[in-house]
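Re: the request from the purification team.
They wanted to know what the chain is likely to look like in 3D before they choose a buffer screen. I agreed to run a prediction and write the result into the notebook, where they can find it.
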Amino acid sequence: VDTVVNNKVNTVATSFGSFIRTEGSADDSKVDLAKLEESIRNEARDNAKNSLGVDIQFVGIRKVGVPQSSLDVVLNAMVTQWTNKAGTIVHIAQQEANAIRAKAQNDKDTALQKARAEASATLAAAQTDALAQFKLMEQDPKLATFLMQLEALEKSVKKQTTLILDDSMGPFGLLRGLDSPLKEEDSEE
Protein backbone atom coordinates (compact mmCIF):
# COMPACT_ATOMS: atom_id res chain seq x y z
CA VAL A 1 0.00 0.00 0.00
CA ASP A 2 1.30 3.42 -0.91
CA THR A 3 2.27 5.71 2.00
CA VAL A 4 0.13 8.50 0.59
CA VAL A 5 -2.87 6.19 0.59
CA ASN A 6 -1.94 5.00 4.08
CA ASN A 7 -1.79 8.59 5.31
CA LYS A 8 -5.23 9.35 3.87
CA VAL A 9 -6.68 6.27 5.56
CA ASN A 10 -5.12 7.34 8.85
CA THR A 11 -6.51 10.84 8.42
CA VAL A 12 -10.01 9.47 7.86
CA ALA A 13 -9.69 7.07 10.79
CA THR A 14 -8.45 9.73 13.19
CA SER A 15 -11.00 12.31 12.09
CA PHE A 16 -13.29 11.10 14.85
CA GLY A 17 -10.76 12.23 17.45
CA SER A 18 -8.39 10.29 19.59
CA PHE A 19 -11.06 9.36 22.10
CA ILE A 20 -14.78 8.97 21.34
CA ARG A 21 -17.46 8.11 23.83
CA THR A 22 -20.48 5.97 23.11
CA GLU A 23 -23.32 8.19 21.97
CA GLY A 24 -25.16 9.86 24.83
CA SER A 25 -22.65 8.71 27.44
CA ALA A 26 -20.44 11.04 29.44
CA ASP A 27 -18.81 8.11 31.25
CA ASP A 28 -15.40 7.19 29.79
CA SER A 29 -15.65 3.65 31.14
CA LYS A 30 -18.62 2.86 28.85
CA VAL A 31 -16.84 3.16 25.51
CA ASP A 32 -17.93 0.36 23.15
CA LEU A 33 -14.73 -0.25 21.19
CA ALA A 34 -16.31 -2.81 18.83
CA LYS A 35 -19.01 -0.33 17.85
CA LEU A 36 -16.44 2.43 17.48
CA GLU A 37 -14.19 0.24 15.30
CA GLU A 38 -17.17 -0.68 13.09
CA SER A 39 -18.20 2.97 12.76
CA ILE A 40 -14.68 4.01 11.77
CA ARG A 41 -14.38 1.07 9.33
CA ASN A 42 -17.66 1.89 7.60
CA GLU A 43 -16.82 5.59 7.25
CA ALA A 44 -13.25 4.91 6.13
CA ARG A 45 -14.26 2.05 3.78
CA ASP A 46 -16.64 4.22 1.79
CA ASN A 47 -14.19 7.11 1.48
CA ALA A 48 -11.21 4.87 0.71
CA LYS A 49 -13.09 2.76 -1.88
CA ASN A 50 -14.57 5.76 -3.73
CA SER A 51 -11.50 7.97 -3.75
CA LEU A 52 -8.60 5.51 -3.56
CA GLY A 53 -9.91 2.17 -4.69
CA VAL A 54 -8.85 0.49 -1.44
CA ASP A 55 -11.13 -1.95 0.38
CA ILE A 56 -10.78 -1.78 4.18
CA GLN A 57 -11.64 -5.15 5.73
CA PHE A 58 -11.27 -4.31 9.44
CA VAL A 59 -10.23 -1.56 11.84
CA GLY A 60 -8.58 -2.32 15.18
CA ILE A 61 -8.00 0.22 17.91
CA ARG A 62 -4.61 -0.31 19.50
CA LYS A 63 -4.45 2.82 21.54
CA VAL A 64 -7.07 5.10 22.98
CA GLY A 65 -5.80 8.61 23.53
CA VAL A 66 -6.86 10.65 26.51
CA PRO A 67 -7.56 14.35 26.00
CA GLN A 68 -5.09 16.76 27.57
CA SER A 69 -7.88 18.33 29.62
CA SER A 70 -8.56 14.95 31.28
CA LEU A 71 -4.85 14.51 31.98
CA ASP A 72 -4.72 18.00 33.47
CA VAL A 73 -7.63 17.22 35.78
CA VAL A 74 -5.99 13.98 36.95
CA LEU A 75 -2.59 15.63 37.44
CA ASN A 76 -4.14 18.56 39.32
CA ALA A 77 -5.99 16.11 41.56
CA MET A 78 -2.74 14.24 42.23
CA VAL A 79 -0.89 17.49 43.02
CA THR A 80 -3.71 18.54 45.35
CA GLN A 81 -3.56 15.15 47.08
CA TRP A 82 0.23 15.39 47.48
CA THR A 83 -0.05 18.96 48.77
CA ASN A 84 -2.70 17.93 51.30
CA LYS A 85 -0.58 14.99 52.46
CA ALA A 86 2.49 17.22 52.76
CA GLY A 87 0.44 19.77 54.71
CA THR A 88 -0.77 17.04 57.06
CA ILE A 89 2.77 15.78 57.61
CA VAL A 90 4.03 19.32 58.27
CA HIS A 91 1.17 19.93 60.71
CA ILE A 92 1.92 16.70 62.60
CA ALA A 93 5.64 17.57 62.68
CA GLN A 94 4.85 21.04 64.05
CA GLN A 95 2.64 19.53 66.75
CA GLU A 96 5.43 17.13 67.74
CA ALA A 97 7.96 19.97 67.74
CA ASN A 98 5.67 22.09 69.93
CA ALA A 99 5.21 19.16 72.33
CA ILE A 100 8.99 18.68 72.52
CA ARG A 101 9.49 22.43 73.13
CA ALA A 102 6.82 22.44 75.84
CA LYS A 103 8.41 19.42 77.55
CA ALA A 104 11.86 21.02 77.34
CA GLN A 105 10.51 24.26 78.81
CA ASN A 106 8.78 22.31 81.59
CA ASP A 107 11.99 20.36 82.32
CA LYS A 108 13.94 23.64 82.35
CA ASP A 109 11.48 25.26 84.76
CA THR A 110 11.56 22.19 87.03
CA ALA A 111 15.38 22.14 87.02
CA LEU A 112 15.50 25.87 87.78
CA GLN A 113 13.07 25.48 90.68
CA LYS A 114 15.10 22.58 92.05
CA ALA A 115 18.37 24.53 91.68
CA ARG A 116 16.85 27.59 93.36
CA ALA A 117 15.57 25.43 96.23
CA GLU A 118 19.01 23.84 96.65
CA ALA A 119 20.67 27.26 96.48
CA SER A 120 18.27 28.61 99.10
CA ALA A 121 18.97 25.62 101.36
CA THR A 122 22.74 26.02 100.89
CA LEU A 123 22.50 29.75 101.58
CA ALA A 124 20.43 29.14 104.70
CA ALA A 125 22.98 26.58 105.94
CA ALA A 126 25.85 28.96 105.18
CA GLN A 127 24.09 31.81 106.98
CA THR A 128 23.47 29.58 109.99
CA ASP A 129 27.13 28.52 109.99
CA ALA A 130 28.27 32.14 109.56
CA LEU A 131 26.07 33.21 112.46
CA ALA A 132 27.58 30.50 114.66
CA GLN A 133 31.08 31.54 113.57
CA PHE A 134 30.26 35.18 114.24
CA LYS A 135 29.10 34.32 117.77
CA LEU A 136 32.41 32.49 118.35
CA MET A 137 34.31 35.50 116.99
CA GLU A 138 32.51 37.78 119.42
CA GLN A 139 33.62 35.61 122.34
CA ASP A 140 37.33 35.69 121.44
CA PRO A 141 38.15 37.89 118.43
CA LYS A 142 41.90 37.14 118.51
CA LEU A 143 41.31 33.38 118.51
CA ALA A 144 38.88 33.74 115.59
CA THR A 145 41.43 35.80 113.66
CA PHE A 146 44.10 33.20 114.42
CA LEU A 147 41.83 30.36 113.22
CA MET A 148 40.95 32.22 110.01
CA GLN A 149 44.63 32.90 109.32
CA LEU A 150 45.50 29.28 110.05
CA GLU A 151 42.76 28.07 107.68
CA ALA A 152 43.99 30.47 104.97
CA LEU A 153 47.53 29.19 105.45
CA GLU A 154 46.37 25.56 105.17
CA LYS A 155 44.42 26.29 101.98
CA SER A 156 47.33 28.10 100.34
CA VAL A 157 49.87 25.29 100.86
CA LYS A 158 47.85 22.17 100.11
CA LYS A 159 49.34 20.32 97.13
CA GLN A 160 53.11 20.48 96.87
CA THR A 161 52.97 24.25 96.76
CA THR A 162 56.02 26.45 96.73
CA LEU A 163 55.28 30.00 97.84
CA ILE A 164 57.75 32.86 97.95
CA LEU A 165 56.10 35.63 99.94
CA ASP A 166 56.96 38.26 102.48
CA ASP A 167 56.29 36.93 105.98
CA SER A 168 54.42 40.04 106.98
CA MET A 169 51.68 39.38 104.42
CA GLY A 170 48.33 37.84 105.27
CA PRO A 171 48.33 34.81 107.52
CA PHE A 172 52.08 34.23 107.21
CA GLY A 173 52.86 36.23 110.32
CA LEU A 174 51.87 33.04 112.12
CA LEU A 175 55.00 31.39 110.78
CA ARG A 176 57.16 33.88 112.72
CA GLY A 177 54.90 33.77 115.71
CA LEU A 178 53.63 37.31 115.34
CA ASP A 179 50.25 38.15 116.78
CA SER A 180 49.54 34.62 117.96
CA PRO A 181 46.86 34.23 120.63
CA LEU A 182 48.88 31.29 121.89
CA LYS A 183 51.71 33.66 122.86
CA GLU A 184 49.37 35.74 124.94
CA GLU A 185 48.12 32.68 126.80
CA ASP A 186 51.73 31.63 127.52
CA SER A 187 52.63 35.11 128.76
CA GLU A 188 49.55 35.30 130.99
CA GLU A 189 50.53 32.14 132.82
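For the purification team: Confidence is low (pLDDT under 50) at residues 12-19.
Please add any questions underneath this entry.
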